[in-house]
């Protein structure tokens, strides 16, 4: 029997978690006792940079069976993003239903003082994210690698921040260093070693998350497409590219353990490998515009295309593993924050700077979604309102989105705002990974 077919009361508190064993908050007061609330679980998977330009032909060739299964049981279509196409702004909008002007995360780095910049942190986000709202409604949540989640927030479940692995976040350092150089400013020094603060909430989950078994997991039949492949361009980056492959698999392995141990009502997982690989190898998919010369010769183009397409198929298999614990009535949403376009600049051959790369994709299926329904005009602002509506929770009037038209769910009267109290975070010491993050961001061409 699927989880969606069981009757399960809404929990206002969980034993052993004093933070949640108090009186119901405003959100819980709204949700508790709502008899018409859908019963089921939500899986929200972000695939950074996934483009219909690659997905559509691979689906036609039968190479993305899990995403295709979602589309057949529900919807598939474009998801509109908004300039500027910087991942932290977009993924924070996805998680809040609010524009960057409201939630406050504008990009990768922010001014700290005259002549000094630093990374954006979770404490810079204004307002509650979906995991805060769900937690306060008594639901168990799991968040794995969502951008700008460090320092980790205290949730009713487990939050694995985007600073958990230095290798997961070393891209941010590339961007910040380039920004600092471009504008003639200094990058705030980053404490290391003993000064590194908690990166997982609750802290007791840290050892489980960092276990060697996740780094050595083999969750799919797909071998690393960058290892022992001399036909690929840029051999200097082979190990870095292989690390993206290992990183995504480790994150899914962690998510699977959390699924098994706490059975979350809401799970959010962000996989960034496709975006990272696309920055290097997009010229294998699409030739430069006009008379511009391709940075790859024909064999290299073929090899780059093959590696990137294999990475899409690999990511599809990882999505399949995450879906395996859910029933057909549970809600599954897989989406990307933007597409890609050819933009040759040094090592970088693909980017997402112009309106040509504005459209991401969305797949969704579950109770209340008709098979092969039209996706309609849906934007990144609409994801949090859609999930709230499916869960039977009200949206908020200070959100900028609305539930997707493809979702048939009972609508509750909106509340003014969920931002009625503080968000508790663990120690706000620097993670010690900031330097590596900023260096990789610079290499990937995230600097204007």
Give the structure's gist in a few sentences.
With 448 residues, this protein is of the alpha/beta class. The protein is built from 15 helices and 13 strands. It has one domain (15-106, 125-165, 199-429): Alkaline Phosphatase, subunit A.
Describe the structure.
- This protein is α/β, with parallel strands linked by helices and 448 residues long.
- It has one domain (15-106, 125-165, 199-429): Alkaline Phosphatase, subunit A (3-Layer(aba) Sandwich), CATH 3.40.720.
- It is 33% helix and 13% strand.
- It has an 8-stranded mixed sheet, sandwiched between helices. It has a 3-stranded mixed sheet with strand order 3-4-7, with helices on one face. A two-stranded antiparallel sheet has the order 11-12.
- A hairpin with a 2-residue loop joins β3 and β4 (116-119).
- The relative contact order is 0.23.
List the helices and strands and how they pair.
Elements: H1 26-31, E1 42-47, H2 52-60, H3 65-73, E2 75-80, H4 87-96, H5 100-103, E3 109-113, E4 116-119, H6 130-136, E5 141-144, E6 157-160, H7 166-169, H8 171-183, E7 186-187, E8 200-201, H9 206-209, H10 212-215, H11 238-262, E9 266-271, H12 273-281, H13 298-323, E10 331-335, E11 341-345, E12 348-351, E13 359-365, H14 383-391, H15 434-443
Parallel strand pairs: 1-9, 1-10, 4-7, 5-6, 5-9
Antiparallel strand pairs: 2-13, 3-4, 6-8, 10-13, 11-12
Helix pairs in contact: 8-15, 11-12, 11-13, 12-13
